[in-house]
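Chain X:
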Amino acid sequence: MTRPHPANDTAASADSVAALHALVMQSLDDDQAQETISIPLEGKSSIADYMVIASGRSSRQVAAIAQHLAERIKKETGRSARVEGLPVADWVLIDAGDVIVHLFKPEVRSFYNLERMWGFVDAPVAGTA
């Protein structure tokens, strides 16, 4: 019995992370999330490879985007994402393992300003460049 080469495992893992990240970004775009940014965390933090931050126009839209994203992750990858904050939906966290998504109402997002905390103060907003 031969074991797969570790480099192959790393490549497969990187491919699955890239696919998950692409799925998240596409789902947010499909659901009209606003001001979506993606912060690469590889080498900066062990919590995930990407942190994605986006806004919805209202609590209702934030909740709908979050629920749809969690369902899509389950359907496409077979893994369940943990979702926190749905009852109020001012700030919803979707933890998909390698990709963590923060969905905010605009005023809550500006209050917590996660982009600044992660050093992405002047990051271009997806879709505006």
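Chain Y:
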Amino acid sequence: MSFIDDDRPQKKTAHEIGADLAMLSVDELKARVELLKTEIARLEAEATRKASGRQAAENFFRS
């Protein structure tokens, strides 16, 4: 009988800005970095999409 249960669902990684990082492993820190990079890319894509829509509206009303 094993005490380590690898079949358990993995806890979803979340990050709170300013959280204490002292108790996290290197792998957990790297996972959080990747999570944040993905979120930054998502935020930038949304900002670009919205800026593009706004520019199209401004061009429409200038004509």
